[in-house]
């Protein structure tokens, strides 16, 4: 039966402390105990339903975690203060010194930098592979490999990972498959396709208003408990805890995610088809020309489309910069990193969000200088937007 993630969010029912339609916000960093014995049991992890201290968890954070776990179809989830605040503890919880990770080479620059430059300090090594080539993925596995890591749709090249194929490899070699689903919430449900842990930067589409940071780790109760363990839990001990007020505001935005994703996807598909027809080198998973189109179609929850992200190659960094500045001047969106906003955001990843990746490696993976990454907004009249964008492209000489 088809998985219906938006129904899972819709079906959640919460009553606030005074009968409010929103759950009450727990505006406390610490919690009282009626008996000292319960405090001891809570520290030992044996007192369900008791709160200890908000770095561990809080009622508001649990509500948001529950909603996101429902959306991804996992047992439970733990929210964090940023996407990186979810990703790095999850990796550190799974790997100790001497362990090895096989990761997609096209991932968000911050995650890449963590694996390439930071994790080796702890003697955790990573092999970067072309995630779309399952034979290369399997060949990179060593006896020390513990984790297979990828993004469902990668930042910024929009490569599509075959989650079922990767899950088979992970199971065969007894590895954990960690998948960052930031680019494709609702459209793709990696947890349902065999991923062990699903991660998100909530900063992007899920919150959708570019006013806060957030992250989530969705997985089994056992894994999430281990992250929060007071003795050796990476989230508990490294401390990337989300603030309760923010958890409450993100939960409210999550409720409109299905409407927003449909509009982002519809607008992005419209523009991608137009740009491609105009002769621009356009990458969008919804285009038949995209190498991951078929696998995306096979995996997707149909009604949400192919997401709001697309790339266009402007030919050179100078042309890319000229075009982005003009589009901002004409109020078509903002020259800014990040994604999932109501207005279109654009940036050149080679010199921004992926600048952590050395130039020669950028070239090898196909990240060209002139690449512009677009997070397409919720524009009501996308034809008007296209006409105005085309005018900008003609003005800077990318189109005739
Ligand atoms: C795919 C992806 N994962 C993770 C992150 C990191 O999230 P945050 O900036 O919320 O720490 C980003 C941020 O750009 C991202 O694009």
Descriptive overview:
The protein is α/β, with parallel strands linked by helices and 400 residues long. Helices cover 38% and strands 14% of the residues. It is built from 15 helices and twelve strands. It has helices at 5-10, 36-43, 59-72, 83-94, 109-118, 134-139, 163-172, 221-228, 234-238, 244-254, 257-277, 293-299, 317-329, 359-365, 382-395, and strands at residues 76-80, 100-104, 125-129, 145-151, 176-180, 197-201, 215-219, 282-283, 309-313, 333-335, 344-347, 371-375. The strands form two sheets. Strands 1-7-6-5-4-2-3 form a seven-stranded mixed β-sheet, with helices on both faces. It has a five-stranded mixed β-sheet with strand order 8-9-12-11-10, covered by helices on one side. Helix 3 (59-72) packs parallel to helix 10. It starts with a helix and ends in a 5-residue tail after the last helix. The mean pLDDT is 96.
The helix-and-strand class reads: alpha/beta
The residue-averaged pLDDT reads: 96
DSSP summary: helix tally: 15
Q: How is the quaternary structure best described?
A: single chain
Approximate strand percentage: 5-15%
Secondary-structure map:
Layout lengths: L4 H6 L25 H8 L15 H14 L3 E5 L2 H12 L5 E5 L4 H10 L6 E5 L4 H6 L5 E7 L11 H10 L3 E5 L16 E5 L13 E5 L1 H8 L5 H5 L5 H11 L2 H21 L4 E2 L9 H7 L9 E5 L3 H13 L3 E3 L8 E4 L11 H7 L5 E5 L6 H14 L5
Parallel strand pairs: 2-3, 2-4, 4-5, 5-6, 10-11
Antiparallel strand pairs: 1-7, 6-7, 8-9, 9-12, 11-12
Bound molecules: pyridoxal-5'-phosphate (PLP).
The site of pyridoxal-5'-phosphate has 16 residues, from helix 4 and helix 5.
